[in-house]
Amino acid sequence: MSVIGRLVAKISIKSSGDVFHELFRDDPHYISKITPVKLQGCRLLEGQFGKAGSVIQWNYFHDGKARVAKQVIQAIDAEKKSITYKQFEGDLMELYKSFLISIHVDTNGEDNLVTWTLDYEKLNENIPYPTTLMDYFVQVTKDIETHHLK
């Protein structure tokens, strides 16, 4: 029996929310320069960075292992500062039937809030919840914030 779930994390950042959104939207390959231990690369496979329908591959280090994720950019809303990625190949698909990763940035003057949402369907009830992956995204967010505050 599969289990459908959702995890949400909200992280307040002092750096620019607009810059954070633009980094994931237009320059995700640059994130590996900011946090190279966690993310080794982001490669465009089809389409164009910043365009829905484009396919990207992430090479990252999580839970002590080198991992790969292939995703299609399912939706981008520049006005709402949100991006949704749909995982279709890679390590996560060994555990989950479906996996969506959404990033949303709320900006209000100097107050910026990054919200990560993971929507998933586990292949069975024995598969762990993706809490360590959410911790990973929170840490990547903090690494990006630290880099932009320098």
Describe this structure in words.
With 150 residues, the protein is an alpha+beta fold. It contains three helices and seven strands. Strands 1-7-6-5-4-3-2 form a seven-stranded antiparallel β-sheet. The chain is globular and about 45 Å long. It starts with a strand and ends with a helix. The model has no long low-confidence stretch (mean pLDDT 95).
Largest sheet: 7 strands, antiparallel
The largest beta-sheet arranges its strands as 1-7-6-5-4-3-2
Order of helices and strands: EHHEEEEEEH
Integer average pLDDT: 95
Helix content: 10-25%
Radius of gyration: 15 Å
In whole angstroms, how far apart are the ends? 48 Å
* Tally of separate helices: 3
Q: Could you say which overall geometry the principal axes of the C-alpha atoms support?
A: globular
SS strand fraction: over 45%
Give the topology, please.
Blueprint: E1 3-13, H1 17-26, H2 31-34, E2 39-46, E3 55-62, E4 65-77, E5 82-90, E6 96-108, E7 111-122, H3 131-149
Antiparallel strand pairs: 1-7, 2-3, 3-4, 4-5, 5-6, 6-7
The gist of it:
It is built from three helices and seven strands; from the N terminus they run E-H-H-E-E-E-E-E-E-H.
Summary tags:
150 residues; alpha+beta; 3 helices; 49% strand
